[in-house]
Amino acid sequence: MDVRRRPSKALRPAPKEPSSAPEPTGAKASDALPLPLYFTNALFFTLFFSVAYYLLLRWRDKIRNSVPLHVVTFSELAAILSLIASFIYLLGFFGIDFVQSFIARASNEAWDLVDEEEGEDHRHRLMAFSPSIADHIIPAVSSAEDEEIVDLVVKGTIPSYALEEQLGDCKRAVRIRREALQRITRRSLQGLPLDGFDYGSILKQCCEMPVGYVQIPVGIAGPLLLDSFEYIVPMATTEGCIVASTNRGFKGIYASGGATSTILRDGMTRAPVVRFPSASRACHLKFFLDNPSNFQTLADEFNKSSNFARLQGVQCSIAGKNLYMRFSCTTGDAMGMNMVSKGVENVLAYLRNQYPDMDIISISGNFCSDKKPAAINWIEGRGKSAVCEAVIKEEVLKKVFRTSAATLVELNMLKNLAGSAVAGALGGFNAHASNIVSAIFIATGQDPAQNVESSHCITMMEAVNDGKDLHISVTMPSIEVGTIGGGTQLASQSACLDLLGVKGASKELPGANSRLLAKIVAGSVLAGELSLMAAIASGQLVQSHMKYNRSTKDVSKVGS
Q: 3-state SS string over 148-181?
């Protein structure tokens, strides 16, 4: 970025335009006069030309009568002083403005010559950031003082969203945007931290127009003994008891020999909607997509935009003239929404050539379904479909959870199954799967909004071994996680993934890390379900929340 010190266009003096009204500021001679401006101007104009005419007549008479010009009368002396006074006023009123406007025009013309030489390259840089910015030709502010830039942002001269690109310093941009926001809203952001965060890591990736970051504490629970391996699970939450309760569940599972898990399906989905002139034409495309002989052609089109996206299948649904096509594909270790969307675009382009009368309405027709509770995700699955189970021994139930298998089975039937059915729950046949899913998602950089479908879970409990032990399982059909891309690349979230041993992409087996993360999520939900249900059964729920989830501290007075 060009850092030569030169004034921005916004800071250059602009030529004055004629105006009938005086400016509120400025060093004009008329500012000292109490009379209205138009009256003052008329007075001094009249005075100047009157005394000038009077003096010319007097000097003509002196020349005719051979009287020396330096010999003046009192009236002539008063006329000379009036002429000088009126001339000073008129020069101050009109001359200074003319000189200033002349200098401003000359200065701007000089800088415009520089802009013509550098403008094309500068415009290309702006276009790379946002085409709309180049339309404004934003002032180059990289060399201006922070206070000046804040004023320009407040006035709207510089768009707040363009500060990072213009300054070349992400943290400085955040600081300036933050100060401008406080001045505009007249609200303090003192409690919102600024320092201690790498703002360059989120540029054009995670968050636009940042002004700080929110602190969420990260606790650890574990070890989770899952499939003969131990994991320490990071959980980011502001709700007391969640980490402690999950940790107790881990303790009980560990003491009973651990849990086992299985990934049933692994496929991210995207479902565009297209429209035809008639329902029969929409059905014709549906039959084409359902025909197994056409799958490879579709797969070739879908797969060409990624080394990891591999089309698994297409599920179609008709609604009148509209056709919804739910594409499912593997996405490696990425959560995969962008990957599957690119593949769908490839297929739509191919189908458009085959069906010219097809009108593409939307790349997403909500048949996917993303970030919304939907029966299709509950039934067909989305992302990773996992099941996790464990057998909790009788002595562990008594010692760790202070309850019995029969009590838990009855409670699960009445609460998680019958109670959820009475409520008309969709995928919510559990005690609090969402608590654990959200905490792990935030800690590991997943999309928190996908907690909606990722928390779909049915918790099953059954007494085994003559009714002494408890078999508990959770089935979660749509855990949407990834270990690369998005928020997983941020330092804090990356550290949490590293703690679990699933940081980045698996080099040996693409997709292995994201599938393991889904298993860990399911195992953690299993522990959370077990502990909470035991707390309810033994009457410890209210007591534990009063102990760990009730604060008497006035946090509004606590500094960051």
A: HHHHHHHHCCCCHHHHHHHHCCHHHHHHHHHHHH
Write the pLDDT tens digit of every residue in 355-397: 999 999 999 999 999 999 999 999 999 999 999 999 999 999 9
> Is residue 486 predicted with pLDDT exceeding 50?
yes
Q: Which of 76, 227, 239, 462 is catalytic?
A: 239
Residue of 14, 431, 175, 544 whose CA lies nearest to 163: 175
Q: Which token pair is 380?
A: 């067909």
CB 481 within 8 A of CB 384: yes
What predicted TM-score, i.e. pTM, was given to this entire model?
0.73
* pLDDT range class, residue 41, cuts 50, 70, 90: confident
**What is the spatial distance between Cα 550 and Cα 544, in angstroms, rounded to a whole number?**
10
122 is catalytic: no
CA atoms of 534 and 237, how far apart (whole Å): 21
Instruction: Write down the catalytic residue from 76, 148, 227, 447.
Output: 447
- Tell me the average pLDDT across 467-491: 96
Closest CA relative to residue 315, chosen from 254, 273, 271: 271
Predicted confidence at residue 44, as pLDDT, reads 78
Q: Which residue has the tokens 């000292």?
A: 32
Tell me, what's the pLDDT at 93?
67
3-state helix, strand, coil in the chain (%, to 5): 50, 15, 35
3-state SS, 456-505, equals CEEEEEEEECCCCEEEEEEEEEEECCCCECHHHHCHHHHHHHHHHCCCCC
**Residue 284 is among the residues annotated as catalytic for this protein:** no
Q: Catalytic residue among 122, 321, 471, 545, which?
A: 545
What is the sign of the dihedral through the CA atoms of 417, 423, 424 and 425? negative
The pLDDT score that the predictor gives to residue 32 is 46
Residue among 62, 122, 371, 471 flagged as catalytic: 371
Task: Give tens-digit pLDDT for 512-542.
Answer: 999 999 999 999 999 999 999 999 998 866 6
In sequence order, the 6+-apart residues with CB closer than 8 A to the CB of 506 are 333, 483, 512, 513
Map residue 265 onto helix, strand or coil. Answer: strand
**Is 447 noted as a catalytic residue in this protein?**
yes
